[in-house]
Amino acid sequence: MNAAVSVRSASRWYGDLVAVNDISFDLGPGVTGLLGPNGAGKSTLLHMMAGLLKPSSGQIHISGEPVWQNIGMYAQVGLVPERETVYPFLTGWEYALASARLQRLPQPEVAAQAAIDMVELGDAMHRKMGGYSKGMRQRAKIAAALVHDPHILILDEPFNGTDPRLRLQMTTMLKELGDTGRTIVFSSHILEEVEHLAEDVLVIIGGRLAAAGDFRQIRRLMTNRPHAFTIRSSNNRALAAALVDRPHVTLVSFDSDTMEVKTTDFGAFTEAIAPLIQSSGVELHELQPADDSLENVFSYLVAQ
Fold this sequence. Notes:
Blueprint (H helix, E strand, L loop, with lengths): L4 E10 L2 E11 L2 E6 L6 H8 L7 E6 L2 E2 L10 E4 L11 H11 L5 H11 L15 H13 L5 E5 L7 H16 L3 E6 L2 H7 L2 E6 L2 E7 H10 L2 E7 L2 H8 L5 E7 L2 E6 L2 H15 L3 E6 L4 H10 L1
Parallel strand pairs: 3-8, 3-9, 6-7, 7-8
Antiparallel strand pairs: 1-2, 1-4, 4-5, 9-10, 11-13, 11-14, 12-13
Helix pairs in contact: 2-3, 2-4, 3-4, 8-9
């Protein structure tokens, strides 16, 4: 119960559909990424952590207190849901101010302005949110969640609809918040988003926790798994002849004008392929992973 967030054997089902299945973990200060493909159960888990859904079984505590039907918890928790929750007839300023007043802050105007400045929405704060872009609406939601300076921040797919500049700004902001001792958990189905922001990661697939811990170790598991690549070149057979002698290449097969190469060492293959193409005198037309979907990656993790 010393953890900021404690999840114990939490499950949630809807009739015969099990959305979250017997998940346990603890979260402390810093940024944790909740990684998984669409439909894995990430949103359901975050909604239970935020007290919006009651676990069908198990328990979830924040700062030692149960989250379900605990209104006082929201004084220390900020939630950014994936679903659109902004009101198009309000300005960004009015939205943040309403959130500050709902939190009964002593100086709601000051708190609202600080939150808007933090997400860099000042230039558009007096425009109605109905005219905002997706990225601007995301910033407005984050400002409303940060207005009361919560110790725990829960974000569901916060980078959806954001451009590269905004994504960088949000990443920097969340890292700084995590460095101050806050507990931040965010979900994503994109590996690179988690890699740039989180040191710890929870990997969820099919409602189950497939892996948890240091991101670098889990990333190594993902990278070191068997890989397949699809290649098209000006002379596939000449390139295949150069590849088959490599100890990390286990199979080379042909299909029309493409060939598939299977390797046991992702790093060794990616380092060797460019010199091999050059020495073989062929022109490379296409090189891409053939099995790099998140579902394949996570299925491999589950098998481990």
